[in-house]
Amino acid sequence: MQADFNRLQNFVASVFESIGTPEIQAQLAAEVLVSADARGIDSHGVARLAGYVRLFDHGRLNPNPQIKIVHESPSTAVIDGDKGLGLVVAPYAMEIACEKAEKAGTGWIAVRNSNHFGIAGYHAMKALNHQMIGWAMTHAAPLVTPTFSREKLLGTNPVAMAIPALTEPAFVADFASTAVAYGKLEILQRKGLNTPDGWVQDADGNPCNDAFAIKNGGALLPLGGDREHGSHKGYALGAMVDILSGVLSGANFGPWVPPFATAGFMSAGESVGIGTGHFLGAMRIDAFRPADEFKKDMDKWIQRFRSAQAVEGKQVIIPGDPERELEVERKAHGIPLLEPVVRDLETLANRFNVPFILA
């Protein structure tokens, strides 16, 4: 199915409202979620909507949270999300980061007691509206083994950074600290395909190509796949995200991070903190140097890298280019949805008596 962008977003907002999310927050959550599909990150888009509803069904999601600052300094804060949608909590936190950066030069926000916040890139890009550099990261349920481990101790733990330029589109990096996000496995599962090498290992720690490896006791691998290809670097990157998102905020961390409603896991289990955590930041450019000078240099940087001599049949791209181009195309021509995702959405439409008109 090719879904119309606006109709899909309105449908998602209606589902969130049906579980008790206030209209403005439901619209924001839908915007964050559908932005993932528009940018081609289908693993974190509307395919996750049923998962958020399952969190609500299991009492792990507060649809109408009272988000509050529980600790702060002029340039930092800790925010308690009150078990709210991370899709709502994280944008709130990013606005606070930008407000602090406006006054202090930089703003850094650690979040606890939240839930899955969608694509990290959306939140980092919020800083671009303020002509600032934005950071966003979050930890996730333990599906990933540290290098040489058979135990799953870390999540996919993504990092995003958005940097404005003058005339060029912004530099936007958004990536997991693992070889691949778990949602990509879900896509392969729906298509009945195996994984490429370097994505997963089986229950005994051996490399495999089973898209269902995690459900069968296996694990995702850190970025790099194995030690010879630099998995220790992916492991370290994921660990840094976990410490900033969890240990620093007072959220759960490591193997205690509560699972999203995916991979067949629902129980939150033992806790060492409060809910899921994020870490977001904003940097005012003129706190470092005149903003226009910086942006001109960013234009030069982008233009030089984009014009690099490329291998035959390829082109060097700037982080954010593919997603930005796909967003223009999909908003104009529709968002493709796999049949299993369509069926999940139809089920939600029937449950909440929401009109299911997406095309």
Topology:
Elements lengths: L1 E2 L1 H14 L4 H16 L10 H9 L10 E5 L3 E5 L5 H19 L1 E9 L5 H6 L6 E7 L20 E5 L7 E5 L6 H10 L8 E2 L5 E2 L10 E2 L10 H17 L28 E9 L6 H16 L14 H13 L1 E2 L2 H14 L7
Parallel strand pairs: 3-4
Antiparallel strand pairs: 1-12, 2-3, 4-11, 5-6, 5-11, 6-7, 8-9, 8-10
Helix pairs in contact: 1-2
Helix and strand run: EHHHEEHEHEEEHEEEHEHHEH
Number of strands: 12
**Considering DSSP H and I runs of 4 or more, what fraction of the residues is helical?**
25-40%
Kindly state the mean pLDDT as a whole number? Answer: 95
Oligomer: single chain
Question: Taking Cα atoms only, what radius of gyration do you get, to the nearest Å?
Answer: 20 Å
Q: What is the tally of helical segments? A: 10
Beta-strand percent range: 15-25%
Task: Describe it.
With 359 residues, the protein is α+β, with helices and mostly antiparallel strands. Helix content is 37%, strand content 15%. The chain contains ten helices and twelve strands. The protein has helices at residues 5-18, 23-38, 49-57, 86-104, 120-125, 182-191, 231-247, 291-306, 321-333, 339-352, and strands at residues 2-3, 68-72, 76-80, 106-114, 132-138, 159-163, 171-175, 200-201, 207-208, 219-220, 276-284, 335-336. The strands form three sheets. It has a seven-stranded mixed beta sheet with strand order 2-3-4-11-5-6-7. It has a three-stranded antiparallel beta sheet with strand order 9-8-10, with no helix packed on it. Strand 6 (159-163) and strand 7 form a beta hairpin. It is globular and about 50 Å long. It starts with a strand and ends in a 7-residue tail after the last helix. The mean pLDDT is 95.
